[in-house]
Amino acid sequence: MSDPVLSVRDLVVEIPTRNAVLRPVDHVSYDIEPGEILGVVGESGAGKSMTGNAVIGLLDRPAAIAGGEIRLKGQRIDNLPYEDMRRLRGKEIGMVFQDPLTSLNPLLQIGDQLTETMLAHLEITETEARTRAIAALDEVGIPAAASRIDSYPHEFSGGMRQRVVIALALCAEPSLIIADEPTTALDVSVQAQIIALLKRLCRERRTAVMLVTHDMGVIAEAADRVAVMYAGRLAELGPVRDVVQSPRHPYTEGLMGSTPLASRGQHRLRQIPGSMPRLGSLPDGCAFHPRCPKAQDRCRANPTPSLDADQGRAACWFPVEQLEDAQ
Amino acid sequence: MLAYIIRRVAQSILVLLVVGLVAFSMFRFVGDPIDNMLGQERTQADIDRLRTELGLDQPFPVQYFKFLGGAAQGNFGVSYRQGRPVSTIIAERAPATLELAAVSGFLAISIGIALGVFTAIRRDGWVSNVIMTVSLLGVSLPTFLIGILLIYLFSVELDLLPSFGRGEVVDLGWWTTGLLTSSGLKALILPSITLGLYQMTLIMRLVRSEMLEVLRQDYIRFARARGLKERTVNFRHALKNTLVPVITVTGLQLGAIIAFAIITETVFQWPGVGLLFINAIQFVDIPVMAAYLMLISVMFVGINLIVDLLYFWVDPRLRADRGGAH
Ligand SMILES: Nc1ncnc2c1ncn2[C@@H]1O[C@H](COP(=O)(O)OP(=O)(O)OP(=O)(O)O)[C@@H](O)[C@H]1O
Ligand SMILES: [Mg+2]
What we know:
The structure holds two protein chains of two kinds.
Chain A (H helix, E strand, L loop, with lengths): L5 E11 L4 E12 L4 E5 L6 H9 L7 E9 L2 E2 L5 H7 L4 E4 L3 H4 L6 H12 L4 H14 L5 H4 L9 H13 L5 E5 L7 H18 L2 E5 L3 H7 L2 E6 L2 E7 H6 L4 H8 L39 H5 L11 E2 L8 H4 L1
Parallel strand pairs in A: 3-8, 3-9, 6-7, 7-8
Antiparallel strand pairs in A: 1-2, 1-4, 4-5, 9-10, 10-11
Helix pairs in contact in A: 4-5, 5-7, 7-8
Chain B lengths: L1 H29 L2 H5 L6 H11 L5 H13 L13 H36 L4 H15 L2 H15 L12 E2 L4 E2 L4 H34 L2 H8 L4 H38 L5 H11 L2 H29 L1 H8 L3
Antiparallel strand pairs in B: 1-2
The structure holds adenosine-5'-triphosphate and magnesium ion.
Magnesium ion (MG) binds next to α1 of chain A.
């Protein structure tokens, strides 16, 4: 078995504030294999983007990595100097942001943005870069790529711009892509196309993908495994079919319940009562216990059992027993 | 595009006409030129004769249209004080003002942008904080005070630089320049700093705040996420986007530099058109005042027009909208 492309171990991200040190990411561990798509879900503020930004080394101050390890193809990258990390960005780790309307520099032709990225990482001439840029645009499905390469971002629709963004993220052939809600800002009609495109390109190149999303439909459609985050911690991690069909963490169960998912034959929307606690006022024990229907004394007193990245499943004292799991 | 330019030029001409009208109608409050031109032993007959000769007995709209008619042909009449054609006098004086304004404008723009970018990139550094604090002086001190302080320090105390005049100039026939002699260059230093300091600090603070805003944008994050060098991110991606909104203000400031040259020229006795204008007011030399105000407005309007066209050049989004091409 090959090394995982990305291996995150006990990652802790901290934000020092006047009163306390907040932990938007708290002992998170997971791996992503070549060609694998890991879906990351969780409520707003769960720490999904923070985790992605930590991996690519673009945490906004004052947030900073305070513990754990991040390895890319076996090499530690969480403690690299800025310039070394810069060389990895784009070359080894690509990133796709949420809003294609604001991700592209409005004053530069898309061809220039593509070639500058390739020239920053690859030993090629400008002419070669331009040829490759056209090929890259063609690959992401921009019609008449050769004539659109000198267009400015505003001359494309939102969906087309996100295709350009994907071409940019992939143009130096990174081995890992972090896609942070790549379809949230798009029309429903083009969301599926963009996900399909991302999925196809990454399968072909065996690129590992960390796909952050709020959309369980996207997870079910694209991801191989799912990581569920709650208040900075991993609540559950496992193969997508298992997690979606037989969630073990009560939070995941609630999350699935609050997502209309035709495949599960479920149309009624159930809401998890309450809302996620703010980072400054996390309860003792399991962070989810105030909202958990099954919470017992143990959950109030003891932090959740740690979740083993290799095997996965729920960080919970009393995981949901499913009939399929009981065998 | 062409239609747009034509429309803008037409607007500009309209603005000029209105400015001229307003300026012209204010001259009568400055005083009566006849008082200065005739000595103590004037008779009422002298006064009436001169008034008719100068056309001052005519109603003011008539005077205005006569002035416009002449101005359109480059003829601004004869100075009451010097008795020479105003166009000749202004042509003699203009190089001094334009050189001073050009040097001040260049300093203000280049140093202003450079410091603005620096203080934005090194936002929390102590050097940036010092620059920002000092720049507060630049925006709050009045021009004449800055001029006097500089004269006191560099001319009186240190005796390094001249406190007045233009130094030695070289006559190129159609232009006199102080840029070719060392005394001319020395004489330029204090006035150009005095004139440009306010604009420099203004541009610097504007560039800084725009750049900080741009650096927060998604496309800057994305540029970093693509592994571009910090230099590329700052200067290719951020600076260009910063300059779009800065262009207008900078353009207007260039106009202001030429207009405010009056004060600096007075402080430093700089032989330019500003000083000419001040002297003209004292003498109620209407042809000179009218010509000066007309020239300043032409300059303002022209700069505005150029600024608008620059926008097209910098921002592709406008080009597409105006051109209708897609
Ligand atoms: N500068 C800061 N000071 C305090 N808290 C912060 C700061 N920056 C981020 N946070 C907190 O960090 C937590 C994690 O944020 P993150 O952006 O990773 O959430 P997310 O899971 O991506 O949410 P979303 O789905 O809304 O994108 C949030 O609770 C947020 O409030
Ligand atoms: Mg997020």
